[in-house]
Amino acid sequence: QYTAEPFVPESAGLADLRKAASGCRGCPLHRDATQTVFGAGNEHARVMLVGEQPGDQEDRQGRPFVGPAGKLLDRALAEAGIDPGEAYVTNAVKHFKFTRAEPRKRRIHKAPSLRETTACGPWLAAELALVEPELIVVLGATAGKALLGSSFRVTQVRGTVLEEEIHGRRERLVPTVHPSSVLRADDREAAYRGLVSDLTVAARALS
Ligand code: URA
Ligand code: SF4
Fold first, then answer.
1. 5-206: CATH architecture
2. ipTM of this predicted complex?
3. Residues with CB under 6 A from ligand 2
4. From the CA of 91, how far away is ligand 2's center (Å)?
5. pTM for this structure?
């Protein structure tokens, strides 16, 4: 049974949490990745954005959403009326999972398994307990399953305000697609408009 549980300090601040997460060995993903990519941003943020896992750039730089998907997300947030600098951003899984087609070739993102997502859950729970956001923006299926369970379907609930009990706290959540899926879409412009539209629902729920 993989779990981050023994690595998560009790009653710690965000800085202590981040430091502890840098040494997490709760699942095998720490072995091949460069470093733990913990959440970042405003500790008193009203909105928390939860993605899947760090990508190649995030793994190198040690910060979430600094690569192409992050750039697109920042643009979409600003357009929807949410200041990206006011948000707290994190991921369901804190280490980059990848494969290589050939040795020393480009690293290709691989989706985390349910076991790995579950193992990493205590970090996300600790972040939620500390930041206590008014609203959680759920970016895609992995984040949705991590927070709301394996029956989560992003197509069914995107752009709506959900109210759910998570780790003993009543949370409001707005799910939407993952920004990486916009970059992969056949009709990128339509996919981007869809993302902005969902984030506008989140912006309205905050005001
Ligand atoms: N995709 C994610 O889900 N998170 C990141 O931090 C970067 C890309
Ligand atoms: Fe720990 Fe999460 Fe990294 Fe696994 S992915 S080693 S649980 S921080």
1. 3-Layer(aba) Sandwich (3.40)
2. 0.96
3. 4, 21, 24-27, 29-30, 36, 93-95, 116, 119-120, 123
4. 11
5. 0.97
* 92 burial level (CB within 10 Å; 0-12, 13-18, 19+): buried
CA of 78 to the centre of ligand 2 (A): 31
Q: Where are the beta strands (DSSP E) in the chain?
A: 40-41, 47-51, 88-91, 98-100, 107-109, 135-139, 162-166, 169-176
**pLDDT tens, N- to C-terminus, the chain (207 residues):** 999 999 999 989 999 999 999 999 999 999 999 999 999 999 999 999 999 999 999 999 999 999 999 999 999 999 999 999 999 999 999 999 999 988 888 999 999 999 999 999 999 999 999 999 999 999 999 999 999 999 999 999 999 999 999 999 999 999 999 999 999 999 999 999 999 999 999 999 998
